[in-house]
Design goal:
Elements lengths: L7 H11 L3 E6 L4 E3 L7 E7 L2 E6 L5 E7 L4 E2 L2 H7 L8 E4 L3 E7 H10 L1 H27 L2 H11 L9 H8 L3 H22 L1
Helix pairs in contact: 3-4, 6-7
Length: 199
């Protein structure tokens, strides 16, 4: 609620509406929730676990765009919108950990949204939050160092680093796993030196 700036009452109303079309699902680590190249038709709401969205660039290198955690919808909105006309998704969604949650059919979600103002407001707030996150990420990638991007990742996703692979984080930061290891060693050494100075 705090993340997308909606009231508890609105969140409860939205939850009750969406519960009428929600279907439980389970995914193992490494299982794809959405494949690139296939039209996207489902929203995945996560009750537990972590998912990751990304795409493959022209060189076939996997690029991570963002992570989704408990209480979030693992969704690539642009793919859902283009999927309405049968166009293939550009992004993939993959389970970074074991996931439990609910799927919602996008067409049914849209039909409900058209009927209920509270859903329209909720989806607008969620879309605005997503746009802000993408804008901040674009800035971080273009204007900051790898160390700064790692610090921004830790701030945006507190506690997530211990739950997912170093390879996934490196992909998100746009660096190699080897360089990721080096950054972590440097950060640990700096923290140790700072601790020794305080003592």
């Amino acid at each position: 609620m705090k993340r997308i700036n909606v009231s508890e009452e609105s969140y409860t109303n939205v939850t009750n509406l969406l519960a009428t079309i929600a279907e439980p699902f389970h995914a193992r680590k490494g299982e794809f929730l959405q494949h690139a190249g296939v039209p996207a038709t489902q929203v995945h709401w996560l009750a537990s676990g972590v998912a990751r969205s990304g795409f493959f660039n022209r060189d076939g290198v996997e690029m991570t765009l963002r992570f989704f955690r408990e209480g979030e919808s693992a969704t690539t909105l642009t793919d859902l919108i283009t999927g309405e006309s049968g166009q293939a998704a550009v992004q993939f969604l993959v389970a970074e950990t074991t996931i439990h949650g609910f799927t919602l059919d996008w067409a049914q979600s849209c039909a409900l949204r058209a009927q209920h103002e509270v859903l329209q407001h909720y989806h607008l707030q969620a879309a605005m939050h997503g746009l802000q996150s993408l804008a901040q990420r674009a800035y971080s990638n273009g204007e900051t160092s790898a160390q700064e991007r790692l610090a921004a990742f830790r701030e945006e996703y507190p506690g997530l680093e211990a739950r997912i692979s170093q390879r996934a984080i490196a992909s998100y930061l746009g660096i190699t796993p080897q360089y990721m290891s080096r950054l972590r060693r440097e950060a640990e050494a700096a923290e140790a030196a700072e601790g020794a100075t305080r003592e």
